[in-house]
Design goal:
By secondary structure, the chain is α/β, with parallel strands linked by helices. Helices cover 46% and strands 11% of the residues. It starts with 8 loop residues before the first helix and ends in a 15-residue tail after the last strand.
Length: 311
């Protein structure tokens, strides 16, 4: 994320492009995050209430960095912009009395230690440990990738028994599993579309879109009624709190919104010249990653690379 760079005129001209559906792509360090922030600043300059804007990022540390960047670009009013992770947003949505009544669930993510006790309780079903583990992984993936929208997603009787038992245990613990959260949020948004839309912040900006699950991506898209702007590169995945990231979502966005504006950034504003050259050399023969190549201005420092040999 390019957060430590001066804002030059060429980047600003890209960042201030306003459209209700925008996809920002490019390699690492080219200013995707900066461009998102500048789009938010442009909306505020045009009179949009900053309290109606959400900026969704991958991690808590990224949220702090993005808040600092916004304050630099748009001092004062940017503090009213909601900035946080998809998890934080979904927990906020599901924490209302109406949502709890509708879903029958408490939006509290089960801790790692609690999860271990839950798995021990699940073993009382009599399923072999390996088979039980495989089924749970299957459930988690189906929830994040919306496979459960197919009424026949559970094939065997044992799968139905296990998922029912899992739900009962989670309800009794007043908790959810992380892979459930976006799925339940999406179901709630769809079932209460008018209510949620009326109270939603209709301008949604998402950074590192490739790190989100499919369920998270779809839910955020529904919330961004007036503006849905995302930035990402499918080859820049990092480990986050989302179990099953869905980088294909960038291509899904293109297909779903063929009239969306796509902004591709290619000039590096963060990396030293030698680092960018080394990265480009590694990927230049891979056509699938051509969009990650980064050009660097001669004004950037040359930098240096040290090779460390481990004995």
């Amino acid at each position: 994320m390019a957060l430590e760079t001066e804002i030059d005129d060429s980047i600003t001209s890209v960042g201030r492009t306003i459209c209700n559906r925008v996809l920002i792509t490019g390699g690492p360090g080219v200013g995707k995050t900066l461009t998102l922030a500048q789009n938010i600043s442009a909306l505020i300059d045009d009179g949009v209430d900053p309290g109606e804007i959400r900026a969704v990022v991958s991690t808590s540390s990224a949220a702090q960095s993005f808040e600092s960047l916004l304050e630099r670009i748009c001092p004062g009013r940017s503090r009213e912009v909601w900035v946080g992770t998809a998890r934080n947003l979904f927990i906020e949505i599901l924490s209302t009395d109406e949502a709890i009544e509708k879903t029958g669930r408490i939006p509290r993510i089960l801790s790692d230690s609690e999860t271990k006790f839950l798995l021990e309780d699940m073993k009382t079903l009599g399923e072999p440990n390996k088979r039980l583990s495989e089924m749970l992984k299957f459930f988690y993936r189906q929830w994040t990738e919306l496979g459960d929208e197919d009424p026949n997603w559970l094939v065997s009787v044992e799968e139905k028994l296990v998922v029912d038992a899992l739900q009962r245990h989670l309800i009794s613990r007043h908790a959810m599993l992380e892979p459930e959260l976006a799925n339940i949020t999406l179901s709630y948004i769809c079932s209460r579309c008018e209510t949620v839309s009326a109270s939603a912040k209709p301008y949604v900006f998402v950074d590192d879109y490739q790190n989100l699950s499919k369920a998270s991506q779809v839910a955020l898209g529904l919330l961004g009624r007036k503006c849905f702007t995302l930035a990402g590169n499918r080859n820049e995945q990092i480990q986050t709190i989302e179990s099953y990231p869905y980088p294909q979502g960038l291509d899904v966005f293109r297909a779903q919104y063929p009239d969306a504006q796509e902004v591709h950034l290619s000039t590096g504003i963060r990396s030293a010249r030698c680092i960018a050259a080394a990265g480009n050399a590694l990927i230049q023969n891979d056509d699938r990653r051509a969009d990650t190549l980064v050009m660097v201005h001669d004004t950037m420092p040359s930098g240096s690379i040290k090779v460390v040999k481990w004995n």
